[in-house]
Design brief:
6 helices; mainly beta; Maltoporin, Chain A; 36 strands; five-stranded mixed β-sheet; 686 residues; 22-stranded antiparallel β-barrel
């Protein structure tokens, strides 16, 4: 059956002699006036038949902190596993894996992957600064055909757009808040001749909730320059990031020797010396070329250097004080050089307009790793105990075609990835022999998208698609932290996703209702402190989401401004059917419910009340007692006020009702989510 996909995808080549289309804007798409979804084609990609959600960050009060709970408030099913240190993101979806560093969700910035190595080590120690972003897009089934691995979908952060006639503007902002939070957010936009540019810088620092070792500081710098020359747009982007985070440890469930219990004295740190430092530099050059009125090609070349440094004291346990007299120091560096080309063509067969896309990705990472044992709990260097050389080389080819049959759209797609991973353990003082791995895996992925346009504003859609999770470096040659352990025999995971729904958007209302079924083979998860293949599972349920402009329905509200009400609920039944049969996968709450109201008056102010209710669930696949996470409800209240044309004042109360809860459990214990915390600041705009 899979060969039919290939035959269907070759049809555009047979259509070259057909009648050419009249002048068409290739990037045309339905404009999203508030949160909704992208239809059909966008930025030379096909979204027809793919479930996706687009949230405009301009429609809510400006995010002054990296509050992912607020940024994804209108995205059903996405679980934010909150950490005390708000600089890092921990995200998962539909119970498809551990949210730690968003390992099972692929994060992008302007369509470019941001993990250290999206095949060998897909950790997201860097996430784009939310105050610098314009939109957040989340793609479910079919995302692997567009971008590659990870079963939990793709979260794409989109920067403030630049246009050819960019007016000179900018901002200088300063925000302060609880736990000595201090954020400065600055930007300059403009154009000269055919060049448009943006320079954006953000710094965030704070002490965190513990009395010691929960402090952090992070610097973000983004420089963009677009040159418009005829039908071409040439792009240059520089991204820089540097951070230093304290890791203050976790809490225990019950009292005991040397323990700190959750709900007790939570300002204590169980780890006084553990630190994580991350730095990242990425340079990108690209061109978007409109070949003619029906076709275009985009080419991106990018290179990055990514460093992760950690030091962790020995002698720690679940919610206990670290008492060891030594520490473990790990230094990982990722040098990456990559290239991607995407081609789009619109063509006719008879009177029906169709779209063909194809592309290639060449992805390469070299990653040296060293581990040292420090002579003191706070040592910054020590005796070398392990050294590894690691490499990933991937070549991907992907093709999709949207066939239009009147109001009915059919989009078959295929992606083939050839992944080579090499690991050479040069030194290991704990074993008598070093390990070497050199594995190549060829992974074909198939998908089929369906859409029927009921009207100009609504459609029925469906998607059947495959995704997978490759074996990472840490799974091939375990480099545990001394608390967690990893099974040495790990197989790659694969999923097949079925989803059917009905969605639509108008100037007054949008909605999206869908039912899904996911089959997960060779699931990779956590049982207690051990990471392993946990068997096969089934994830099924439904999503319901809507947003309404109440002022458009009730004339009496118009004199006092706009009222946007949104609500969404995700219902999930997830169970292991083999291996841990009958157990519930980790981070798979039965329901996640979000609702809120956003009130604004022209450009004078915005006020938002946002809430989320998360059902109880487990933080491991073994459903052990220590990893049980009770249900919780959290509300946030935020506001922006333009006091003058140039001055914007922002304020907010996160966790408005001061809920004492947690949403993340790891081997070192329960990680407390922040209680009520406040911020306020001012921004000068010019």
């Amino acid at each position: 059956m899979k060969y039919y996909f290939i035959i269907l995808l070759m049809l555009p080549l047979l259509a070259e002699g057909q009648e050419r289309l009249e002048t068409i804007e290739v990037n045309s798409d339905k404009q999203v006036s508030f949160s909704g979804f992208w239809e059909e084609n966008k930025e030379n990609k096909i979204f027809s038949g793919k479930k996706n959600t687009v949230t405009s960050l301009k429609e809510i009060p400006q995010l002054q902190t990296n509050n992912y709970r607020q940024a994804t408030s209108q995205t059903p099913g996405l679980l934010i596993s909150e950490v005390p240190n708000e600089s890092l993101a921990a995200i998962t979806y539909r119970g498809l894996g551990n949210p730690h560093e968003s390992f099972n969700v692929l994060l992008l910035q302007d369509g470019i992957p941001v993990p250290a190595d999206m095949y060998g080590y897909p950790a997201h120690y860097y996430s784009p600064a939310l105050p610098m972003m314009d939109q957040v897009q989340f793609i479910r089934g079919g995302s692997s055909l567009l971008y590659g691995p990870q079963p939990g979908g793709v979260l794409n952060y989109l920067s403030t757009p630049l246009n050819k006639d960019q007016k000179t503007s900018g901002k200088v902002g300063l925000t302060g808040g609880s736990y000595k939070l201090l954020t400065t957010n600055n930007a300059l936009y403009g154009s000269k001749g055919n060049n448009s540019y943006a320079i954006e810088y953000l710094r965030r620092q704070g002490d965190g909730p513990q009395t010691v070792n929960s402090n952090f500081a992070a610097d973000y710098l983004q420089i963009r320059n677009f040159t418009f020359a005829g039908k071409n747009k040439y792009k240059f982007t520089f991204n820089g990031y540097d951070s230093d985070h304290g890791e203050s440890g976790g809490f225990a469930k019950s009292p005991g020797t040397n323990r700190v219990v959750f709900g007790g004295n939570q300002d204590k740190a169980t780890k006084s010396h553990d630190r994580l430092k991350v730095s990242r530099v990425q340079v990108l050059g690209g061109v978007e070329s409109k070949i003619d009125d029906t076709s275009e090609i985009h080419v991106n070349l990018w290179a990055s250097a990514y460093r992760r440094y950690s030091k962790r004291q020995s002698g720690a346990g679940f919610g206990t004080f670290a008492t060891g007299t030594t520490n473990t120091i790990q230094n990982q560096i990722y040098y990456s050089y990559n290239a991607e080309a995407r081609y789009l063509k619109k063509y006719k067969i008879g009177s029906n307009e169709n779209t063909f896309t194809a592309g290639i990705l060449h992805y390469n990472v070299t990653s040296p790793f060293t581990q040292e044992t420090g002579a003191r709990p706070d040592a910054n260097s020590g005796t070398l105990t392990r050294r590894l050389e690691r490499e990933t080389h991937t070549n991907s080819v992907f093709v999709e075609n949207r066939f239009s049959l009147g109001n009915f759209m059919v989009t078959p797609g295929v992606r083939v990835e050839s992944i080579n991973q090499q690991i050479d353990e040069r030194k290991n003082t704990t074993t008598s022999s070093d390990r070497q791995e050199d594995e190549t895996e060829n992974v074909p992925l198939f998908g089929l998208g369906l859409a029927y346009h009921v009207s100009d504003d609504s459609q029925i859609y469906g998607n059947i698609s495959e995704a997978y999770k490759p074996v990472t470096y840490n799974e091939a040659v375990p480099i545990g932290n001394g608390i967690s352990t990893i099974s040495e025999d790990i197989d790659a995971s694969k999923t097949i996703n079925y989803e059917f729904g009905y969605r639509g958007q108008t100037t007054k209302l949008n909605w999206d209702a869908s039912a899904f079924f996911i089959r997960y083979e060779n699931a990779f998860g956590q049982v207690g402190n051990n990471f392993q293949n946990t068997g096969a599972g089934e994830h099924k349920g439904f999503d319901l989401a809507t947003e309404t402009k109440l002022s458009e329905f009730f004339d009496a509200l118009k004199p006092i401004g706009s009222f946007n009400f949104y609500a969404n609920v995700a219902y999930l039944e997830a169970r292991f059917t083999r291996g841990l049969e009958g157990k519930t996968p980790q981070y798979a709450p039965k329901t996640i419910t979000r609702a809120g109201i956003i009130h604004s008056q022209d450009d004078q102010y915005k006020i938002a009340l946002m809430g989320v209710i998360v059902d109880r669930h487990f933080g491991d696949d073994g459903n052990t007692g220590n990893f049980k996470i009770p249900s919780y409800t959290v509300f946030d209240l935020t506001a922006d006020v333009n006091v003058t044309k140039s001055w914007l004042v922002s304020a907010g109360i996160n966790n408005l009702l001061d809920k004492d809860y947690y949403s993340r459990v790891r081997a070192e214990g329960i990680q407390w989510a922040l209680g009520r915390n406040l911020y306020a600041g001012a921004t000068y705009k010019f």
